């Protein structure tokens, strides 16, 4: 068992394999994603999405600043750390400075790099608002798209705002800021593809994204095999 206090270098085989997976996933999903977007997206959904993004960015700029922004940052560390089975020890907030300490085991050590980068890709608000955008509750499609887009915009703007080569979260990664930012970019691209597929076609859009990808990947494999 060990303690993580943002002092140890993290990012082993599992981390770099996941980076490769992210890269390949974005390439493989791209054709089906483009088809879903162009065939399913309506003007109503597009307009609601743009409105939600503007609203989310505004909320972030006006209210999610200073200690609140720091708290969100540290909570994303804590949430992902808890999901992989670590024990939280301390969350400290001092204005725009914060820290999260946790205990990890030999089995969970491989997740430390993901925990370090969690504030820059974990869509916490999107997840928290699933009941409001994921289920109808008698609401129209525009309302649900607006809610998802606003939550996504909050996650993106709070994450992007914190990106800096001076952040210990990036310095902790093997390969430093360059490797860390590549991972964050590809993870956010993958998340964006899934969320925009939902914006375009609701749950059917997400299902179509993966089912269509499966069909064409299978076709390519069969063609290669002859």
Structure description:
Helix 1 packs across helix 9, helix 2 packs across helix 7 and helix 7 (141-162) packs across helix 9 (176-225). The protein has helices spanning 13-40, 43-63, 66-83, 112-117, 124-128, 130-133, 141-162, 168-171, 176-225, and strands at 2-4, 87-94, 97-104. It has 226 residues and is mainly alpha-helical. Helix content is 70%, strand content 8%. The longest helix has 50 residues, at 176-225. A 3-stranded antiparallel β-sheet has the order 1-3-2, with helices on one face.
Outline, from the CA principal axes? globular
Pattern of helices and strands? EHHHEEHHHHHH
Lateral arrangement of strands in the main beta sheet: 1-3-2
Average pLDDT metric: 93
What characteristics describe this protein?
three-stranded antiparallel sheet; 70% helix; globular; 9 helices; mainly alpha; single chain; 226 residues
Give a nutshell description of this structure.
This protein has 226 residues and is mostly helical. The protein has 9 helices and 3 strands.
């Amino acid at each position: 068992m060990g303690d993580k206090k943002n002092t140890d270098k993290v990012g082993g085989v599992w981390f770099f394999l996941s980076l490769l997976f992210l890269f390949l996933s974005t390439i493989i999903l791209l054709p089906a994603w483009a088809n879903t977007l162009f065939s399913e997206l309506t003007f109503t959904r597009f307009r609601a999405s743009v409105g939600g993004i503007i609203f989310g960015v505004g909320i972030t700029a006006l209210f999610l600043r200073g200690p609140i922004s720091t708290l969100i940052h540290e909570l994303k560390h804590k949430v992902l750390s808890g999901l992989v089975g670590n024990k939280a020890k301390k969350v400290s907030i001092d204005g725009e400075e914060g820290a999260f300490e946790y205990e990890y085991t030999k089995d969970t050590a491989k997740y430390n790099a993901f925990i370090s980068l969690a504030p820059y890709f974990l869509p916490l608000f999107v997840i928290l608002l699933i009941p409001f955008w994921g289920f109808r509750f008698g609401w129209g499609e525009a309302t649900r798209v607006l809610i998802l887009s606003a939550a996504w915009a909050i996650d993106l703007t709070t994450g992007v705002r914190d990106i800096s080569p001076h952040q210990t979260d990036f310095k902790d990664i093997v390969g430093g800021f360059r490797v860390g930012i590549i991972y964050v970019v590809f993870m956010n691209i993958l998340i964006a593809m899934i969320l925009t597929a939902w914006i375009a076609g609701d749950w059917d859009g997400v299902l179509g994204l993966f089912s269509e990808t499966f069909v064409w990947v299978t076709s390519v494999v069969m063609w290669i095999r002859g």
